[in-house]
Design brief:
It is built from four helices and no strands. By secondary structure, the protein is mainly alpha-helical.
């Protein structure tokens, strides 16, 4: 394994670390690289994410972003 110095957006990497419960920047970078070039996510990896939480609102996500009156106003392709 080699050592590489890279400039990384501090806010972006800290957000990734919080979101996935990672303890180090190295873990965040390795996780991102594995997602980009690695095999599909393993069961073990997915289980390791258990308990990191989710703060979304399903009811809000289910609401249409387009008003009912706008439906059908789109030009035909």
């Amino acid at each position: 394994m080699s050592r590489t110095n890279i400039d990384i957006d501090d806010e972006l990497i800290e957000a990734a670390m919080r979101k996935y419960g990672l303890k180090t920047k190295k873990e965040a970078v390795e996780m991102a690289l594995q997602r980009l070039v690695g095999p599909p996510l393993t069961r073990e990896f997915l289980l390791s994410l258990r308990g990191i939480g989710w703060e979304g609102d399903l009811d809000e996500m289910r609401q249409s972003k387009i008003a009912d009156s706008d439906v059908g106003d789109q030009p035909d392709a």
